[in-house]
């Protein structure tokens, strides 16, 4: 492309992104499309001959972008939404536009330095030792958890992990068990500890389990706690778990991918007490730090543990190793070639300031509590699990009716399916204590109480629908 053509092409894309950001709240959050429909739009052989750039672009804007869910929509309540922010989007465009290699110091001293600086910011936020501590940006929380378990295993077990045992709760995110399996641990080496009534890691059950494992000659080496479970936002008893890990000399990993960012708010800070004692901590800036995908992060109490785990010295990297004060992030994690993730975090924090993040997170937590109060005042809705770090679980369960558990499951599943089918809100179910419940995750600062009440009106409409069907 000529310089002029590049400009025109780029301007069209920026225009489309800006238009999207300016109007996304008026669009529908849900995209529906079957495999057949997508095949009919896109399936073709790789073209031998190219096409006009604007023709391809227009096709993409028309067919690809419109057939994708808008996770930043204020009525996108499910999974963990991705509120994102425009400055970081543009930062990503810059990082990709310049194709900056963020693996080694030699390739970009500035990229390495910005990763060091932004990791330092996070270390301070989470109360980790600033000098000794370290970390790395990853593609997301799953990769950060995997990086943590690899590190824990290397440091605690060396090469022989045949007797090693790892502990996590039944509410831990699936990425942890995935990481453990990826690393080749057998079923007999994994202890999934049941949670207590509040869905928290049961400390007593854990203590008993560790004692039993030691008696059997096994080696408890790592515990994974969660600071903000995906289901309910619950924070495990971090202080107690930290003490157990210290006493038992067990690696203490905390998965704060969802909830960690809450530490920026007053209520969240209180809930996160004990997080600073972790050996490693996953946070996920593409969740509640409002960054576009992909950006996860692993923080460690001792940065040397990462380099001990991941450093390799192949001959072809000899000349770019640099001196010991220079950090090559390819020696701190799994990836060699890495995109420049730190840039978006750096630019958005510099542009908005931490206060803006704190205010947004505080607003989210307060909004969820307001929703809980509203539900508790209603005769139709039951709060199944209270608002916790901006997540709330509830179900349609009118007190005037005496529905069986089976009927309630059916009704709430139906409500969710119909709401999603309407495309007006993304509201899906989860299962708590065997009950199908609706789950709202309110981490979007643009979500208003009206978005919530409109969604409840919609739910009520479908609830009456299915009630009529059940009655007939
Ligand atoms: N851990 C928790 C607690 C999560 O909620 C999630 C995602 O929702 C993950 C890990 C996985 O993070 P990612 O989807 O960024 O890989």
Automatic annotation (TrEMBL):
User: Which cofactor(s) are needed, names only?
Assistant: pyridoxal 5'-phosphate
The family line of this record is: Belongs to the group II decarboxylase family.
Molecular function (GO) terms for this protein are: transaminase activity
For this protein, the record's Pfam families field holds: Pyridoxal_deC (PF00282)
InterPro entries documented for this protein: Aromatic_deC, PyrdxlP-dep_de-COase, PyrdxlP-dep_Trfase, PyrdxlP-dep_Trfase_major, PyrdxlP-dep_Trfase_small
Does the record bear Protein biosynthesis in its keywords?
no
Keywords from the named record? Aminotransferase, Decarboxylase, Lyase, Pyridoxal phosphate, Transferase
Q: What is this protein called?
A: Aminotransferase class V-fold PLP-dependent enzyme
Keyword Lyase on entry:
yes
